[in-house]
Amino acid sequence: MIPIASNVFSQPSLRFSIKKIVTCAAMVFARRRQVLARAGLVMPILLAAILLLFPPSAAHAADADTAAPPKKKKVVLIAGVKSHGPVGNGIHDYPWSVKLLKVMLEHSNVADQLDVEFHLDGWPQDASTLNDADTIMVISDGRDGDKYQEAPHFRSAVRTELIARQIKRGCGFITFHFSTFGPDSRANESWDWTGGYFDWEENGKRKWYSAITTLEAEVQPGSPKHQVLRGVKPFKIKEEFYYNIRFRPQDKSLAPIWSVADLPGRSRDGRVVAWAKQRAGGGRGFGTTAGHFYVNWKNPDFRKTVLNALVWTAGADVPAEGVEAPFYTHEEITAALAAANNTTSKAVTPKPAAPKTASVRVLILTGAQYPGHLWQKTTPAILDALAAEPRIEADVSENIEDLATERISKYDTLIVNYCNWKAPGLSDAAKAGFLKYLRAGGGVCFIHFSNGAFHFSLPEAGDSDWPEYRKICRRVWNHQGKSGHDRYGLFTVEIADPVHPITAGMKPFETRDELYFRQAGDLPIRVLARAKSKVIGQWAPMAFVYEYESARVFQTVLGHDAQSLRTPEVAGLVRRAALWTAHALGEEHPAAKE
After folding, report:
1. Residues 177-203: tens digit of each pLDDT
2. Is 498 left (phi over 0), alpha (psi -120 to 50) or beta?
3. What share of the chain is helix, strand, coil (3-state, %, to 5)?
4. How confident is the model at residue 86 (pLDDT cuts 50, 70, 90)?
5. What are the Cα distances from residue 536, in Å, to 146, 475, 479, 541, 543?
6. CA torsion, points 14, 19, 22, 26, in degrees to nearest 10?
7. In which element (H, E) is residue 219 found?
8. What sections of 388-486 are H helices per DSSP?
């Protein structure tokens, strides 16, 4: 009888009649409610009528037709500005890391569950995009005493409060490598949001509780049954590990994810380098101190752990085998983002203002000079030359001892417009800092009389002599030798190397300058431009390049004053040299390597 009734009552005309019957019955029930209620008949009769009108099979079919697809989880990735050396050295490469994560997630076995966006320069242009994020990941620097800046989420009270609101509603939160650094004043936030932080201070002074070491070691899963470790096996990597992380004592909401036995950490949790937190009030956090070297994304277990953590903190279930996604090259990442018409963010409409295009950071070192060379006038001319290239962002330091600080590590190339005429030489720390920067691949450009610095022949500065400088700056002014220059005036500069990226397409040009000749040095150089001296009747190199260990070096003896530096061709040489030394200028013609 039940199948027959189902078929009969599925006819529209009969359904309409039944509706009339039920309506009438309801009126009767209303008049006799007390009687029927005593008999317990009201609800059974009404329920029977409803079931006749809307059979279970029909109701289920309607639900299936109208059910909305599950809402995707929104993942927001925030990258700080790259630090620790020039673009391309594979260290603290935050922008490429968030781009890679986006492409991996969007081509993974959980792609249909996620909506991923990334933001560069340390914070979204429109921070309201965080208000519906399911998880937020910050990959950036953090403050270490007077070095660097606070991680973006601790940069201001406004930002910290904004993130706190997201945490309160259950949003996930992830810190990665340097962004795990936090001040003690924000310990509770760090513990509540992700579970732990790198403790660098004591009473506001730089005194590490946590520690850092770089080594190649095996990484062991700390909680093998945790979702973040699904599909992850023990693996070996070379990494700059932070350890002795500050965790809240007896925090039962924490689970160790990675542990490195070779680290000299304190007992209990000093060797933990990744952890996960299940917040009591809802929401999930994750942190890892790994991530110094970009190449580690190629390790399948490294990247799977981080991808799992993104999915898990977003409130989704991690697949039994973990999140599967291959590593992508820079070219593949760029192509994937371009194909999706998405090079910045998937969910945020860019503001109408012109986008920031600076990608090469340059620091001009100046502040002292021979009285005949006024750095106060030549430095602005160099800045003007660089300003014509939108990719370049330039700063000026008037303290040569900045070479001893970590400040220089955030620049892709240095321009030296300095000579210690009657001034002290470099401190040992500045020498060491300069060499460290160059060995890490940082570029350098020497302008005009900067080649006379730190030389034994320099008047009243002989004790500043630094022999290594003559290997870094290969043609130097020797006051005790045959170095000299033509009288300041007009002369023609010939292009000696028309295929090098710096001089490609350039024509001979006239400039008003000092024509330096017989600069001391015999290490090999590649001459880009030359001029013929009227004094000695010989050609002298005006601009040339070479390499010092891992660094690209450009040197020009042009640039006596602001007028000469504002000669369009000289300005172009300086501008293109800044790009080339920063590895941001196109490849040279194949003939250039012959």
Report:
1. 999 999 999 999 999 999 999 999 998
2. alpha
3. 35, 25, 40
4. confident
5. 52, 18, 17, 13, 19
6. -170
7. strand 211-221
8. 428-439, 469-472
Average pLDDT taken over every residue of the chain: 85
Over residues 237-266, the pLDDT tens digits come to 999 999 999 999 999 999 999 999 999 999
pTM for the model stands at: 0.52
One-letter amino acid for residue 260 of the chain: V
- Choose among 563, 481, 472: nearest CA to 520: 481
The tokens for 242 are: 């932070």
Contact (Cβ atoms closer than 8 angstroms) between residue 161 and residue 340:
no
Q: Give CA–CA dist 544/577, Å, rounded.
A: 10
- Tell me the C-alpha distance between 194 and 440, whole Å: 32
Q: What is the Cα–Cα distance from 564 to 569, expressed in whole angstroms?
A: 10
Burial 411-430 (b: 16+ CB within 10 A, else e): bbbbbbbbbbbebebbeeeb
Cα–Cα distance between 292 and 518 in angstroms, integer? 45
pLDDT of 325 above 70: yes
Whether 546 and 474 have beta carbons less than 8 Å apart is answered as yes
Contact indicator for 75, 116 with CB cutoff of 8 Å: yes
Tell me 153's DSSP state: G
Tell me how long the chain is: 594
Lay out the sheet containing 360-365: strands in order across.
392-397, 360-365, 413-416, 443-447, 551-556, 539-548, 526-532, 489-495, 509-513
Q: What is the dihedral of CA 350, 352, 356, 357, to 10 degrees?
A: 90
Integer Cα distance of 510 and 542 in angstroms = 13
